């Protein structure tokens, strides 16, 4: 999927593309009448033209180099559903010393009125900013006077101190694009690794020389003018069960390799892992914190009291850190201050929590390492060379005997050695203070498992009264415990659950192992629900699919070009036994099924019947793989479609004479 493009190759490649911006406000009848059928007949809006250019320039005020990025786009709106494309959000980076700024922003809406195009210019007061996080600011605005058929247009200039990643260009967005063109001016003293991600191909690309594009210390520097063009770009449709869209959208990425100094010599930015290992092991906010055994040395005997082996010690330390340091919901691979302060204040970011765990495990003479990773919503990391900005999360790894356990102490409701699903994303880099770093697969150590058992009796007035037992393990138990924890008490949770279950009334309840996260979570409910009103108990319909029914197919695309990533395998089993009030015969019933996915990917089994006046339902739904490749998508879609279709059928029961 990632195709690394050699900068040298681009410099000698010359194709016919001519980079050209388009005039602002020059709306044509072709724009207004553009037939969406040529791209996507279902599109609510289409990008007619998009042009961007980026260059490195010397800032006259600060006398430092900055990246100047200009963006210009024109969009056709077809219906009210397309109005959301007029809500524009431009993210910019900021920290205590540097920030990106937006200038020369203009935006207009064009409507065709009385045989003329009428422009409505956006009021500058309509632009506002929002601090999304410590490092991200959002510039937001909405185009005015929207109508079905409007053409909107906007442009702006972004100034950035960030030269390392230059400026990513996304060819693919959430609506189709007729044309998306990007021109990058790279000074000859800068060498970038350039990569094209995604499944769409470039329509054209070109590299040519731009003379004296930059002057530093009186020295004129030439640039490589690189042009990338993609035409007729389909929309990227996000669907459930995927990692970050940036992994799959077609886009050009830049990473700075080295800079040739004007006075001679070269500064390399693409380092080896050997270089990075040495640096990280000596960082005050990472390696130094891993070495802080002194913080826990006197606490370890108390924490591990009663532990008979190393695994029990590790579990005791893990539980101690979970209780002592509360996660402040910030990600990061570096400690915000130091782990001693995190322990004293009982709060910290992800790194504070898990570096404390590593130091405590080490203080107990256990072999502990740090694992740097990128969360599912942050994208995958570059494995060709270290790019530290790719990583946004740190967990612990403890090696006991011939087994290794990955630990994240930020979530009190997670059992030992089960990472949050947000961490299950490709591979992580293991940092060991004594050995070279290495890659490790980030795989869920448990399934999401749920078992339902309903045993009940049907009354003569058409009600079923019985006991529903639910056993949850792995990620299923974690999700349920987290859901319950949002309420003031389990009783309040059940009360709200009873309100949501419109057909089923909960009479009594008990929940076991709520805080014992290493054990299965067990819920027991005495329930009652009505099958029929009792007016015709001689013959009635009864649907057995009232426990976690599948009513909607999660896979609806005609084609999916990226994998289905569930994070973990799953196993759900449902057993129902309902005794009827008398002798009945079965006229109709849901068809018994045995449907499998290729490559032992999963199965759905259903058996239903009536024997000794007891209705029985046995249902098994297994998805054995955490990840299904794009070419398996249609099998999954058909798999769910067959299940949904069968679950529309019911029992038809007739009282025997």
UniProtKB/TrEMBL annotation:
Residue span(s) of domain Transglutaminase-like: 299-380
InterPro entries given in the database record: Papain-like_cys_pep_sf, Transglutaminase-like
Keywords: Signal
Signal peptide start-end: 1-19
Pfam families in the record: Transglut_core
Superkingdom classification of source: Bacteria
Record keyword Transmembrane present: no
Coiled coil: none
Protein name: Transglutaminase-like domain-containing protein
């Amino acid at each position: 999927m990632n195709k690394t493009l050699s900068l040298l190759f681009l410099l000698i490649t010359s194709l016919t593309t001519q980079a050209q911006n388009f005039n602002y406000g020059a709306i044509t009848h072709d724009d207004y009448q553009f037939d969406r059928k040529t791209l996507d007949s279902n599109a609510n809006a289409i990008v007619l033209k998009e042009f961007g250019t980026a260059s490195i320039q010397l800032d006259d005020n600060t006398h430092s180099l900055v990246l100047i990025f200009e963006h210009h786009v024109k969009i056709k709106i077809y219906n009210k559903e397309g109005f959301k494309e007029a809500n524009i959000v431009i993210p910019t980076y900021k920290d205590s010393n540097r920030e990106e700024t937006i200038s020369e922003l203009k935006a207009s809406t064009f409507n065709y009125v009385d045989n003329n195009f009428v422009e409505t210019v956006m009021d500058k007061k309509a632009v506002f900013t929002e601090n999304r996080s410590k490092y991200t600011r959002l510039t937001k605005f909405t185009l005015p006077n929207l109508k079905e058929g409007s053409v909107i247009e906007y442009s702006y200039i972004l100034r950035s101190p960030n030269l390392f990643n230059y400026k990513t260009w996304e060819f693919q967005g959430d609506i189709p694009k007729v044309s998306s063109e990007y021109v990058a001016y790279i000074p000859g003293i800068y060498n970038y690794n350039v990569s094209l991600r995604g499944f769409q191909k470039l329509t054209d690309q070109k590299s040519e020389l731009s003379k004296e594009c930059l002057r530093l210390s009186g020295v004129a520097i030439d640039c490589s003018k690189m042009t990338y063009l993609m035409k007729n770009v389909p929309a990227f449709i996000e669907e459930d069960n995927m990692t970050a869209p940036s992994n799959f959208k077609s886009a050009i990425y830049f990473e700075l390799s080295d800079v040739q100094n004007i006075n001679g010599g070269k500064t390399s930015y693409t380092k080896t892992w050997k270089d990075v290992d040495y640096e990280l092991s000596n960082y005050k906010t990472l390696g130094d914190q891993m070495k802080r055994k002194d913080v826990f040395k006197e606490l370890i005997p108390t924490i591990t009291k009663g532990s008979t082996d190393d695994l029990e010690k590790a579990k005791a330390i893990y539980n101690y850190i979970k209780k002592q340091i509360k996660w402040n919901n910030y990600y990061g691979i570096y400690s915000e201050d130091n782990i001693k302060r995190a322990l004293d204040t009982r709060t910290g970011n992800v790194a504070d929590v898990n570096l404390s765990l590593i130091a405590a495990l080490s203080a107990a003479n256990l072999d502990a390492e740090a694992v740097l990773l990128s969360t599912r919503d942050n994208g995958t990391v570059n494995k060709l060379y270290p790019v530290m900005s790719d990583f946004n999360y740190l967990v612990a790894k403890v090696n006991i005997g011939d087994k290794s356990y990955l630990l994240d102490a930020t979530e009190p409701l997670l059992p030992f050695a089960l990472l949050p699903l947000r961490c299950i994303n490709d591979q992580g880099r293991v940092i060991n203070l004594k050995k070279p770093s290495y890659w490790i697969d980030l795989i869920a150590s448990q399934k999401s498992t749920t078992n339902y058992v309903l045993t009940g009796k049907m009354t003569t007035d058409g009600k079923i009264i019985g006991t529903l037992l639910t056993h949850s393990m792995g990620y299923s138990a974690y999700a349920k415990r987290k859901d319950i924890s949002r309420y003031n008490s389990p009783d309040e949770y059940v009360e709200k659950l009873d309100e949501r279950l419109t057909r089923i009334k909960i009479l009594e309840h008990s929940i076991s192992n709520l805080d014992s996260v290493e054990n299965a979570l067990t819920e027991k409910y005495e329930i009652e629900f009505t099958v029929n009103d009792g007016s015709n108990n001689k013959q009635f319909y009864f649907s057995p699919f009232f426990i976690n029914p599948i009513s909607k197919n999660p896979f609806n695309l005609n084609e999916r070009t990226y994998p289905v990533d569930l994070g973990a395998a799953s196993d759900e089993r449902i057993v129902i036994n309902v005794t009827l009030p008398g002798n009945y015969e079965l006229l109709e019933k849901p068809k018994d099924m045995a449907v499998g996915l290729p490559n032992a990917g999963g199965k759905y089994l259903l058996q239903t019947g009536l024997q000794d006046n007891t209705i029985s339902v046995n249902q098994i739904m297994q998805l054995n793989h955490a990840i299904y490749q794009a070419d398996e998508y249609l099998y999954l879609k058909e798999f769910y479609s067959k299940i949904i279709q069968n679950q529309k059928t019911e029992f038809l029961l007739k009282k025997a004479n």
